[in-house]
Fold:
Amino acid sequence: VGAVTEAPPLPALPVPELVLDASGLLCPIPIVKTAAAVKGLADGAVLLVIATDPGIASDMPLWCKATRHEHLATFRDGASWKSYVRKRGRAAAR
Structure:
């Protein structure tokens, strides 16, 4: 019988202002929906995206880098992936 190990603790994540459930959607739709959701948020607000497509683990950090939003974390949670994004403020857009 193998030893049971716990996952390392995650950094404290902020409470999201909005949760987007993109479960069952395949690439690129979770990112397309993320882009639309972020537009409706105030600067500095946090969005939590829940997805079942494992591609979000690489897509979300790349999208955040390209759009200059802050990628806080993406991790697997059971059958889903959770991705936290903070909308960039106007000062960061320069």
Q: What stands out?
A: The mean pLDDT is 89. The helical segments are 29-39, 56-67. The chain has two helices and four strands. The longest strand covers residues 70-77.
